[in-house]
Design a protein that fits this description.
This protein is an alpha+beta fold. The protein is built from four helices and four strands.
Length: 197
Amino acid sequence: MGSSPYEKSRGRYEGPETSVTIGYGFWLGKYEVTIWQYKNTAGRLPRKWADQFNDTDNDLPVDNVTWQEAMNFCRLLTQREREASTLPHGYAYRLPTEAEWEYACRAGTNTRFSFGDDPNYVEIASYAWFEANSEGRAHRVGGKLPNPWGLYDMHGNVSEWCLDWLGDYPGGAVTNPLGALPGDVFAIRGGASHFPA
């Protein structure tokens, strides 16, 4: 996890570099959760969408969701799938840990982005919606190329909540990290349509 202190545009919370082992299997949705999925599961839309939703927005990623609303969505989805007997025993939907999210985003690579280092931000436009190509808004999920594992919008469109608190990485080598100790904010990962590339 993290990046070299010498990497271009490195952010404050990208270090120290940490070697992570995740000793269990997990799954991540191929697309960001859409407005339709959220409404169909939670029974209502988050406050941002409540007054301005229309049917053409169904495939947009839901955004402006609080961490608590995201956790509740996972709880409701788990409950619904268990009641329908479509979720194997012992499984549950939840937010990914920051380590799980980064592992899935990197998709087996160790470059700056899953598609390469892209030092001049040329290739990223094929993989992400960001400030310079998004017109300041989110776009339909899956509208750009996926990472090598078939996951879409990992580098940009809307950011994703993680299960754990935001904080410095421990450095060295860790197994199954749960992130920082409780703090002020939860970790958010991924680029967004209103962020620079």
